[in-house]
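Q: Could you fold this chain for me?
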Amino acid sequence: MRTNWDNLVETSVMGEIAHPSIRGRSPYRITASGEPVVLPATAGITYNVRVGDSATRWVADHLEPAVTIKNPSGEGDTGANAGLNLLACVGNRARVVSGKAEGSAGTVTGKHGGAEHVMVDFTREIMEKMVPGDKILVHANGVGLQLEDYPEVRLFNTAPELLDAWGIGEEAGTLRVPVTHRVPAAIMGSGLGQDNAFKGDYDITLFDEETVEEYRLDQLRMGDMVAITDTDHRFGRIYKRGFVSIGIVIHGGSIVAGHGPGVTTLMAGSDELIVPVVDSRANIATMLGLRDDL
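A: Sure. Below is the predicted structure, expressed as structure tokens.
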């Protein structure tokens, strides 16, 4: 596929490993059935969960795989942290620039809205050397990436290296895009209605057992590419028949109503141009060779 890769700017954004925190005074989260539960949640270093691992089986809520970073110079979605969340793209190279793991390389794997976190994958060996507060530099590149022969298809949060490794094919004027799952718009929750898809994510709710079984959603993994049907993310996240949005699973499931495994948008357009092709290998860990045990 022809792209404008050569014209994109590569720049630096930086964050530090975020410490897990609790919002408010109560540690409880209320389940969709009304029960109070205490669980591990976002941020920190998650040693035993990386892209390629299940997104649904963990005793946790909104679990973020591997390493979570944010820039403390900006709170939430403002200032330097907003720059990190906007400019970092899935598949970008990352490098540890402080602490005992200094010099180690990683890969950006997702962006979590609300928390305004960026997730970076590292091997467990590297993570064992890290502590919260270590600084990580991201070689940000991908904002503005375009498919020159498909101007109606929009790309978001996608590093050129990821696009190149994805294995997208072309057939009769359409893009054949590998995904592990199709997800119906009817079960999409948190993130719906946002006015852009350049950062953050969009949650797959898993509370309807029949839908989960029909679409094999209990088999979702961190890093899976998924197709959300009847949604249009070109100018925000809306329900719209005839369109499809492709994204990557970036955090784990949730017990809270309206929440579940999160999806960061990578591509959006008409379903006449984007044809999802189910392929179990369509996971960033496999595509970029991040793990050798899958």
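A (continued): The CA atoms of residues 210 and 253 lie 17 Å apart.
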